[in-house]
Design goal:
Layout: E1 3-5, E2 9-15, H1 19-26, E3 40-45, E4 51-60, E5 63-69, H2 70-83, E6 90-93, E7 98-103, E8 111-113, E9 116-119, E10 129-134, E11 141-143, H3 147-156, H4 162-165, H5 194-203, E12 207-213, E13 224-227, E14 230-239, E15 242-248, E16 258-260, E17 263-267
C-alpha cells in the first residue's frame, strides 16, 4: 500500500490540559464530541461569520494534530496562540516530525498503518484517504505521479481549495457548502461567528458552490459566468474542462443556459 505526500500541507500540534476545550470554543465543529474520537474537518471564522482558516483536526495521544495548508501554517499558529489567554495550551509547527499524505482508496475508517495515522476524508467519502505520517515511521511517502487526478476528484466532489477559492475574512462558509462538507456543527454551543452562521442557515444562503464542465473548451479561473444572459457568479478552481463556481442560487433554474466566455457550461451532479 502506497502513501503519496502532499507537499502543500503542514502539521501543527495543539497540546496541553485545555487543548480540547480551547479548540472547541473557537472552531465551528464539535471538538469535544466527535472530535475526541476521530478526525474532523474544521473552520475558524471571524466575528462576522466569515472564513479565516480551514484544517483537519486529528486527535492524537490526548492532544491534537492539525493538517492545514502550508500557506496558512504560520498565520494559523499565531492566531491560535493569540486566542489562548490563560488556558493551558501550547501550539507549535511540526513539519519536521510529520508529513501529510493521501492514499487512493476512499474506504475505511481511522486506522494506524505502520505508525501512520490513516483516516477517511471527513468532507466526502469519495475522496482519497488521508494520513499523518511521522518522519520516524517505517512507511515511506512516494511522490504523487499525477496531482491532477486528485484535484479533479476534489472538483467533482464540489470541494473548494480554501486557499485558492475562498477570500479570507470575506467568504461565508455556507456559500461554500461547509455544512455539507461536515465542517460545521449546528448543535454545538457558541463559537466565533456562530450567530451569523445560524442566521444564514435559517434564511438560506443566497449563493452556492457548483461543479460545472464543458464538452468543448478548457475553463478559465476567474472568468465571469452568466445565466440566461445575466451575471450570476465567477469561476473558481479549474482543471481542464472542469471547474468550481460560486453562483447566485435564484438565477440557477432547471434548464437555464449557463455560459462563461462564450463556452456553454453544464452543472455536474
Amino acid at each position: 500500500m502506497k502513501l503519496f505526500r502532499l507537499h502543500d500541507r503542514s502539521v501543527l500540534k495543539v497540546y496541553g490540559p485545555d487543548a480540547g476545550k480551547f479548540l472547541h470554543g473557537i472552531t465551528t465543529n464539535d471538538v469535544l464530541g466527535i472530535g475526541t474520537q476521530e478526525p474532523i474537518y474544521n473552520l475558524i471564522l471571524n466575528s462576522r461569520g466569515r472564513y479565516v482558516f480551514d484544517f483537519f483536526l486529528i486527535p492524537h495521544e490526548q492532544n491534537f494534530l492539525l493538517d492545514c495548508a502550508n500557506a496558512d501554517a504560520d498565520a494559523l499558529t499565531e492566531l491560535l496562540r493569540s486566542y489562548r489567554l490563560q488556558l493551558r495550551v501550547r501550539v507549535k509547527r511540526c513539519d519536521d516530525k510529520y508529513a501529510v499524505a493521501v492514499h487512493p482508496n476512499a474506504t475505511g475508517g481511522a486506522a494506524s498503518f505502520e505508525d501512520a495515522i490513516l483516516f477517511q476524508d471527513p468532507r466526502d467519502s469519495k475522496m482519497w484517504m488521508r494520513a499523518i505520517v511521522p518522519t520516524t515511521a517505517s512507511v515511506t511517502c512516494d511522490e504523487l505521479p499525477d496531482l491532477n487526478e486528485y484535484e479533479l476528484l476534489r472538483i467533482k466532489c464540489t470541494i473548494p481549495n480554501c486557499v485558492l477559492d475562498m477570500a479570507r475574512n470575506e467568504s461565508f462558509p455556507l456559500h461554500f457548502a461547509m455544512d455539507r462538507l461536515n465542517a460545521i456543527s449546528l448543535n454545538k454551543g457558541c463559537y466565533i461567528g456562530q450567530e451569523v452562521v445560524a442566521r444564514m442557515w435559517r434564511i438560506g444562503a443566497k449563493k452556492r458552490l457548483y461543479t460545472v464542465f464543458s464538452d468543448t473548451n478548457v475553463l478559465v479561473c476567474g472568468q465571469e459566468i452568466f445565466a440566461q444572459g445575466q451575471p450570476a457568479g465567477h469561476m473558481l478552481s479549474t482543471l481542464g474542462h472542469w471547474g468550481l463556481c460560486l453562483l447566485e442560487v435564484e438565477k440557477i433554474t432547471d434548464g437555464c443556459n449557463i455560459e462563461s466566455g462564450g463556452t456553454h457550461l453544464k452543472i455536474y451532479g
